[in-house]
Amino acid sequence: MLLGIDMSTGYVGTHYRVKSTNFWSALNNGALSEWIHIDSGATGRITIYPITSTTTGLVSRPILLQYITINNSGGSGTLVVGDSGVGVIAAFKTSVAEKDYHYLIPVRNNLTIDTNGSDLTVSYCRD
Fold first, then answer.
1. What residues contact 16, with CB distance under 8 A and at least 6 apart?
2. Cα–Cα distance between 113 and 97 in angstroms, integer?
3. What's the CA gap between 111 and 47, in Å, rounded?
4. Interatomic CA distance for residues 102 and 120, integer angstroms
5. What is the DSSP letter of 127?
6. Is residue 5 scored above 60 in pLDDT?
7. Percent of the chain surpassing pLDDT 70
8. Are residues 50 and 123 in contact, defined by beta-carbon separation less than 8 angstroms?
9. pLDDT digit string (tens) for 41-65?
10. Nearest of 98, 88, 64 to residue 114 by alpha carbon
11. Is domain 5-126 given the CATH code 2.60.120.340 in the classification?
12. Nearest 5 degrees, angle CA 38-CA 107-CA 35?
């Protein structure tokens, strides 16, 4: 592996940096959060991309999924939140309880949200 690139597969690995306790405290209090709200009735795939370096083309600011808030679970089918490089992170049935689901996990590639018509908010930050 050279510079985070597996030459046999061409896969670009994501490297998370060590952060100070100030970073994690700010993250836990929502100071660094970005979010997306998805209104009820919306269907389809929403993709959130990490920030890539304009000079190297490598991911410079990967995504950390913080939490998913189900505001109204009136959708049909399954709500799926995933990592395009790894797979499914969470799958919510139509009868899921309306509350916050906390994760705080790194996303390897793109964060994907396959909506089912539920009203939800996804909170994330950039490493």
1. 62, 106, 127
2. 18
3. 6
4. 13
5. -
6. no
7. 84
8. no
9. 888 999 999 888 788 777 778 888 9
10. 88
11. yes
12. 30
